[in-house]
Design goal:
Elements (H helix, E strand, L loop, with lengths): L5 H4 L9 E4 L10 E4 L13 E5 L8 H13 L4 E5 L9 H10 L3 E4 L5 H13 L3 H19 L3 H12 L3 E5 L4 E5 L11 H7 L12 E4 L8 E5 L7 E5 L7 H40 L7 H6 L7 E9 L15 H14 L2 E4 L5 E7 L6 H22 L5 E5 L9 H17 L8 E3 H4 L1 H5 L4 H13 L7 H16 L4 H8 L3 H15 L6 H19 L1
Parallel strand pairs: 2-3, 3-4, 4-5, 14-15
Antiparallel strand pairs: 1-5, 6-7, 6-10, 8-9, 9-10, 11-13, 11-14, 12-13
Helix pairs in contact: 2-3, 4-5, 4-8, 5-6, 5-8, 6-8, 10-11, 15-19, 16-18, 17-18
Length: 545
């Protein structure tokens, strides 16, 4: 049987990212097996032709131990020693390199980004099935591994894997009977129900503890499949369809390794996402409370850009005597799924308190030039939150309140407290609190009047409602504001305002219509009128200053 050498595989991923530090003369040694060496006494189990992998922990700060390992590996005719660098070991002493050169034992630099699985699976494929078809699969496996490492979500991962392998993949929630197919137009040849789930994992289909996979097959070749059981909340089974006949040992083994890699990657990704959600929840808790521990540096590690502007959003399910909402917490799988979806699709960062109050940060794009743009697009983000939560909890009524855009990272707690205070006030005033999506902007002057230091907030309040007027030229702005001021002061009388300004009364009507079109405020609306009066007073104060 012909075996691969490191020289044969060094141009395929992940070996292409490795570097030969010493022992180049031994690169043509046949690699017959692979193993991990992370205990001193394990060296006695090393076999001839073994590619030995180590983190270097057993010879940390002790070059003499490494020298002895090199001698023993040479005596046992090992093929190579791969060392994961920059985890425990920062460099290889020159005397160790010299000894490896003397024995022609390759010392391989392995980047710390690779797990042992990333390396062992392709190594085993090379060792057990070296042929032209296997070499082809190694290239496919390299593409698969690269794609998995670049994937940002489980759907991305499975979509890419299905395309690369040329086999449909189905992710199954056996409890809810929900499925995700890749490609999405795949027509499942079987009914995936409880009867199938029980039969597919019968002992007779089990391939053994080495793989923990099931090979299920019926007469129709389309129903030959490899099945991996998953221990995650969202999905319990992964199916790779159109598996080769069991007699086609080579191709079947290749797909077994691919299925193992995919299922392990799905599990690892979901675990990382779960950890990320919990850590992000803790960070945002601190941020909303104004805690200094919510550092920008930590935010970056959790994929939050602290130099972007955000608007806080609050959401809560309406209480009901017939429903128990205590299960709405960070530990609820549905909540995890919502948070993951909002982050992946819309870059919305999420958290939830012990009281079941959802708290979100929606991004404020730097291209949104005006308050009107910010309000409009924030409302769109609010609808996305509403849609995701309502899909996950269809039987519950949700209230959503979008806060004002924070000026920077440090201003987020201020805007959050404003939004929280208003939501509590609205809950007390049932006429204001109804099952809908609301923006603080919609509440207008009522929000301002609830604040303890009204004058300090006037500049921002004025900009929010009157800044759209800056779209008009200076002359138009002056005409509109002067007309509005006079019209209010003369008791909302068109003809009297026209007499004072020496214009036709239709000009007064036209300018007021321009004001409404630009700002969205209607002078005939009671709430809008209060907002207009406050902004006019502030405008007059600014002119006097």
């Amino acid at each position: 049987m012909k075996y691969n050498t490191f020289l044969d595989i060094q141009h395929t991923y992940p070996f292409s990212d490795m570097e030969v530090l010493a022992g180049q003369g031994g690169l043509t040694a046949a690699i017959r097996c692979a193993g991990v060496l992370d205990a001193p006494d394990s060296i006695k189990y090393v076999r001839a032709g073994e590619f030995v992998l180590t983190t270097g922990y057993i010879f940390i700060n002790n070059p003499n131990v490494l020298m002895e390992i090199i001698r023993e590996l040479h005596n046992r005719h090992a093929a190579a020693l791969g060392i994961k660098m920059f985890r425990y070991i920062q460099d290889i002493p020159e005397e160790c390199k010299a000894l490896a050169n003397q024995y022609d034992l390759p010392l391989i630099f392995i980047p710390s980004k690779f797990t042992w699985n990333d390396i062992l699976n392709p190594l085993i494929l090379n060792i057990s099935m070296f042929s032209d078809s296997t070499t082809s699969f190694i290239n496919v496996y390299s593409r698969l591994l690269r794609s998995i490492q670049k994937s940002q979500s489980v759907p991305d991962l499975l979509g890419s894997a299905s395309t690369i392998l040329g086999h449909p993949i189905t992710l199954v929630n056996t409890e809810k009977k929900s499925f995700l197919n890749y490609p999405t137009d795949f027509d499942c040849p079987l009914t995936l129900d409880d009867a199938f789930f029980r039969e597919a994992v019968r002992e007779e289909y089990y391939l053994g503890d080495e793989t923990s996979l099931f090979y299920y097959r019926k007469n129709d070749a389309r129903t030959h499949m490899l099945i991996s059981t998953l221990s995650i909340d969202d999905y319990q089974m992964l199916i790779l369809w159109n598996a080769p006949d069991i007699k086609d040992n080579g191709n079947l083994n290749m797909l077994i390794y691919a299925t193992l890699l995919i299922s392990e990657s799905v599990f690892d990704m979901r675990k990382r996402q779960k950890d990320l959600i919990h850590k992000k929840n803790f960070l945002l808790d601190n941020l909303f409370c104004g805690d200094a521990h919510a550092s920008k540096e930590e935010a970056v590690t959790l994929q939050i850009d602290p130099w972007m502007r955000y608007s806080p959003v609050l959401a809560q399910f309406a209480s009901s005597g017939s429903q128990n909402y205590q299960d709405i917490s960070i530990y609820n799988p549905k909540v995890h799924s919502c948070f993951d979806q909002l982050c992946q699709k819309y870059n919305i960062h999420s958290s939830i308190g012990q009281d079941g109050l959802f708290r979100f940060l929606i991004p404020v794009n730097s291209l949104w030039d005006t308050w009107h743009d910010i309000v409009t697009y924030s409302r769109q983000y609010g609808k996305r939150i509403q849609s995701v939560l309502q899909a996950a909890f269809p039987d519950r009524v949700i209230h959503i309140l979008i806060g004002q855009a924070a000026l920077d990272w440090e201003d987020i707690p201020v805007k959050y407290r404003d939004t929280l205070a208003l939501m509590k006030t609205m809950k007390d005033k049932t006429s204001l609190y109804h099952p809908a999506l609301m923006h603080i902007h919609d509440i207008g002057a009522s929000f301002l009047l609830l604040q303890p230091k009204i004058y300090d907030r006037l500049p921002e309040f004025y900009r929010e409602f009157f800044s759209p007027l800056s779209q008009a030229d200076t002359t138009m702005q002056d005409n509109i504001l002067e007309t509005l001021k006079v019209y209010v002061e003369c008791g909302f009388n068109y003809r009297e305002a026209a007499r004072i300004l020496n214009v036709h009364h239709n000009t007064i009507r036209y300018r007021l219509e321009q004001f409404s079109d630009i700002t969205g405020l209607e002078i005939t609306d009671q709430d809008d009128l209060l907002t207009i009066l406050i902004c006019l007073q502030y405008h007059n104060l600014r002119k006097k200053e």
